[in-house]
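Researcher: I need the complex structure. Ligand is fe (ii) ion. Inputs:
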Amino acid sequence: MADIHPPDTLSTVPPTPAGLLSNREKDTLIERAFTGLYRWYTARSQETRNWNADLSFDWRSLRADLPEDVITVIQGFFAVEQYAPDYTSELLNLVRASHGRSHFQMRWGSEEEKHADAWENAVLFSRQRTPEWIREYKERLKSKQWELPFPDAIHNLVYTVFQERATQLNYLNLMKIAQGKSDKPHLQGVEDPILAQVAQTIAIDEAAHYNFFLEGVRLYLYYYPQKTLEAIKNVIGQFSMPAQQLVPDWDHFFETVYKAGIYGPRDFSRDVMQVAFRNLGIESRKKLEEGIKKTREVPDFEGEQARTTIIWDTFDYGAIEGDVKRLHVKIQDYEKKIGLDELDPTEFVENPEVPRAKPGE
Ligand SMILES: [Fe+2]
Ligand SMILES: [Fe+2]
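Model: Output:
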């Protein structure tokens, strides 16, 4: 179905050249893939990660003598996660018209809510904060409201990829400390199998979140490379962890996390940005910035074609096409299990704008 535009705006809508996908067609394909991925994700989440914040851990056995630095870290993790209702409602509202994305956002919210509850239990059972103190702290946190870091869906989607990876890294590094593997002198001998189990369980959820949002960004990158690469550039240019402005004593928390070897600017660049870049077929931040700059420098008279050629050179589009195809195979395998393949299968449609190697090249 064609887009419907009021007659007086018709001349400003660029026509879709013959043989290319219209934006509407692209959006439909992205939406279908998101819905398929969401269904696959939900089944997998229920099958493999159906834990409970109260019952899945032996809370009574959590150590009561953890060092103050560890408590500061856990308390900060709790503070960030307890904004789950804000994160969910804001993001949900942004993508409410998309079945796959809005339903996913609710599922995601239900998992983030478990993270908040598990970290709260960890703070409480550490026995170093009283229930009254925790109640007051929560009140203080909830008196402020988290807002979207970016106004549009694509930037927030990209932001979430980096944020989920950074969060996963934070939890994995706390897990190592709780396993007695820290190389920091002040964190020797703080083994706590329960804390390690909590951190690991939540980190596995964060990895699943990262993967969902990553697949989403790949879809956008494949069908809308220019817009998506610009969003990636903007997001990494001003990345910070969520709720940084809302949590009291953030600087103290951040310094403790840094001193503990859990997370800092170097970890972001090496273990968050570089990892996400590799997964998105982007060689480096420099290459990304140069590519975008070059597309802007293309003189008007050379037209859209020259600009498009440069953008495809900015990332490994062959790898991304492979990833998007693999995602569709995963969705199709899932649909076969149910019989959806007979009624309404999700199909991969090639983006004709992707440069193809000529025979002999
Ligand atoms: Fe979380
Ligand atoms: Fe998450």
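Model: Summary of the prediction. The chain has a mean pLDDT of 93.
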